[in-house]
Amino acid sequence: MNLAYPYRFDHRGYTAEATDDTHLRDLIEQVLFTSPGERVMLPDFGCGVMQMVFAPNSFELASATQVLIQSGLQRWLGHLLTVSNVSVEADDATLTISVTYQGLTSGQWRMETFQRSVEGAP
C-alpha cells in the first residue's frame, strides 16, 4: 500500500492510497520541492530548487539546477528509478521542472512535469 501525497482521506474516510506510478511521481515531487533542513529527522533531504525561482536566469544556473536535481533524485530515489533527463524553466515566480525517468520496478519510462509558483510573488 502506498500513501497518497499530500496526505488526505478518501471517500470512505480512510487514508487515501496511490498506485505505484502515482506514488513514484509523488516521491519525486517531495524531493524536488523540499528544502534541505525542512525535515528534522532527514536534514539533508530535498533539492532546494524553490530557492532558484528568484535567481537570475542564465544557462549556467539552469545547468547547475539540473545537476542539483539529478543528484538529489539519484541520492534519495536511486533505488526506485533511473533519471534520464531533467529540464528546468524559471518564468517570473513560477518554476517548471520536467523529469524523464524509468521506474525500476515497472521498467516503464515516464515524463512528469512539476510546477510551483512562489506565493506572495509580484
From TrEMBL:
Classification via InterPro entries: IraD/Gp25-like
Domain IraD/Gp25-like: 21-102
Protein known as: IraD/Gp25-like domain-containing protein
